[in-house]
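name: query_chain
kind: protein
chains: 1
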Amino acid sequence: MNDRHLASQFDEDLNVISSKLMEMGGLVEMQIKLANQALKSFSVSQIDDILEAEDKVDLLEVDIDRELATITVRRQPAARDLRLLMAISKITTNLERTGDEASKIAKRIRSIVETGEAREIALGDLHSIFDKAADLIHRVLDAFARLDVVTAVTIHKEDDQIDHEFKGFTRKLITHMMEDPRTIRSCQDLLFIAKAVERIGDHAKNISEFIIYIVKGMDVRHSALTHVDIDSVVQLPS
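structure:
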């Protein structure tokens, strides 16, 4: 079997895995969108759809992991191909965890609706955080499909804004609880949701790091890109 045939088979296997990963990403995006809508309307009508999608996401994670193990044994990839498979495995894990966060949010919204609490607290900041996190997930999946390092670097930086807004919203909730102890339970519910949204942003950031790893072979995890030689990662537009 010649090298060209082996390369062709690897590409076919990779296309199958990539298609499943994007299907998984689409399901996770749907979960986030529905959870965001449920929070804005305090409606439980779409909660079951979110939880049902979680089961599909879990099955895809297992399927992709199995495919990755098979292709690694059969094709014995090296260099960039091996980096790509390793990164896909990590991206799959981050997507599954993102779906978990959306499901957690959905369950907490159901609890809020059932108790009738938390509706008197202004949630504009939380909605803003959720919209930004949803946007990061959408853009990072698109960046992965195109192996777009410029967008990956941008997303990596933008997650800091979500972290900043999350801290601000947390301070507001603490103030609410101090001023009116009757809001403690509802504020705790909202803090739980806000933290889950903040983690969604973190997962988008993690995926952006693996895009950089695939394309440039640089491991920028646990590093602020402000402390990394950006020019060695990507030539950013002026």
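note: The chain has a mean pLDDT of 88.
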